[in-house]
Amino acid sequence: MDQPSPKLDSRPLYAQVRELLLARIQMGDWGPGAALPNEFDLAREMGVSQGTVRKALDGLTQDHILVRRQGRGTFVVEQTPANELFRFFNLYDNKSGAQILPDSRDARVTSGKARALEFARLQLEKGAQVVRIERLRTHDGLPFIAETIVLPDLLFPGLAAMKYVPNTLYDLFQKSYGVMVARTDERLEAVGATKRDANALNIAEGAPLLRVDRVTYSIDGRPVEWRLSLCHLDGAHYRAPPG
Amino acid sequence: MDQPSPKLDSRPLYAQVRELLLARIQMGDWGPGAALPNEFDLAREMGVSQGTVRKALDGLTQDHILVRRQGRGTFVVEQTPANELFRFFNLYDNKSGAQILPDSRDARVTSGKARALEFARLQLEKGAQVVRIERLRTHDGLPFIAETIVLPDLLFPGLAAMKYVPNTLYDLFQKSYGVMVARTDERLEAVGATKRDANALNIAEGAPLLRVDRVTYSIDGRPVEWRLSLCHLDGAHYRAPPG
DNA sequence: CAGTGGTCTAGACCACGTG
DNA sequence: ACGTGGTCTAGACCACTGC
């Protein structure tokens, strides 16, 4: 009679609280930038102590899902171009050390059935529909990155018909599609420019390029984007985030 | 009369406890792998509550300075080739996804006055003495990385005279020199192989290489190593740690 | 079994931001 | 002045480890 749930959940209470909160965020109970109830109200509502709620909130904060501000409250992280740059863009100027945010130019949006590498990276059914964005990114007016972005059509309906692609995408994902980005998995290699790359970036064929192969995952763990960037790092470098 | 210290420290108690513990670790009170006293003893000894000690210990655990094992105790992290690989070696096989630990071959150890880039990276006085290690690293018997390591002579006396350089260095730093590695700062670029690189790695001149420029810092924040790796990633990739 | 870290609670007080 | 998160305490009980 005392068992609150048919399935005995042996995980720590704070982990269960965390999951409950995460589910409510995904369901849109609290939108981007919204304030959550304070710790005591959440604790009372869930029948646990305030310290347990705090531990759950701290965990979600560490995973960049919430932000806490002393004296103000706890808020759902709002994706903006600024913090998107800060978290997901690891290119820096060699001299100044400043982070680089390239411009976007000549974006081409197409769609079609997922090819082998695409459905592997995005964990899709074979032949699922995807949207592809190809664009050139510039820095100080010079060609900098040739970028290909692949998205599952199911998650982003109507995106294929967009006329203009914004420079930063994750704020669009969150606000227009309710997809909240949590983490990325980046794999780097050095490659020589193919004839096609050389043309796009206005460099010599065979010139060394940094190839960044990135899969982005949402807070529920599903892959939501595959991005291939060929970077002509002239006076810039990629800085690995601290482990 | 009630003020325990002449200088009023306004930081949180747990931060002060953390600093005290860190100082004792650096002084060698507890060596690599040694167990700390339990939480209650530490709390009594420092005149704070057990929860406060716990918060300090948790912080040091997150920074990989301590490890906690339920039922056993809290221990100073012991650097071993295995966990050194796990934390600081970000090269993976494309097919298997397994982490790669290359061999070390033909190490040449020299010493001399620090050059411009060296004392900049290691924050040394102009003209300070450094030890340089140059070696070729192989994977599956094939040339893989041409590596140059530069160390401040002051921190590692006698290292310049070593006949054999072990494959992994950080365990040596900790056990023989009391230098505990805390974090790295890695900058990546794609470059074309120079004639010299091509020779060392047995590849064509101009072939694309991943250049990893890494500075390693000890737990007291001082730079202790500068490492330049030119990687011929044949069927492998660099995987960025999660931000 | 004894000893350790891990979880959970309840309550007090502090520091910060806003009105 | 008020409400928020941040710190700190004291104590109970659980889960794991090793003897």
Task: Please explain how this structure is put together.
2 copies of one chain form a homodimer. Chain A has 7 helices and 10 strands. The first copy, chain A, has helices at about 15-25, 40-45, 50-60, 80-90, 115-120, 170-175, 195-200; strands at about 65-70, 75, 90-95, 105-115, 130-140, 140-150, 180-190, 210-220, 225-230, 235-240. In chain A, the strands form 3 sheets. In chain A, strands 4-5-6-9-8-7 form a 6-stranded antiparallel beta sheet. Chain A has a two-stranded antiparallel ribbon with strand order 1-2. A two-stranded antiparallel sheet of chain A has the order 3-10. The N and C termini of chain A lie far apart (about 45 Å).
Most extensive chain contact?
A-B, 30 and 30 residues
Lateral arrangement of strands in the main beta sheet of chain A = 4-5-6-9-8-7
By oligomeric state, this entry counts as: homodimer
Largest sheet of chain A: 6 strands, antiparallel
Along the chain, the helix and strand elements of chain A come as HHHEEHEEHEEHEHEEE
Low-confidence stretches of chain A: 1-7
End-to-end separation of chain A = 47 Å
Radius of gyration of chain A: 21 Å
Mean of pLDDT of chain A: 94
Total number of strands of chain A = 10
Helix and strand arrangement:
The structure is a homodimer of 243-residue chains.
Chain A: H1 13-26, H2 39-46, H3 50-62, E1 66-69, E2 73-76, H4 81-88, E3 91-93, E4 103-113, H5 116-121, E5 129-139, E6 142-152, H6 170-177, E7 181-192, H7 195-201, E8 208-218, E9 223-231, E10 236-239
Antiparallel strand pairs in A: 1-2, 3-10, 4-5, 5-6, 6-9, 7-8, 8-9
Helix pairs in contact in A: 1-3, 2-3
The first copy, chain A, binds a DNA duplex (19 and 19 nucleotides) through residues 12-14, 38-39, 48-52, 54-55, 57, 68-74.
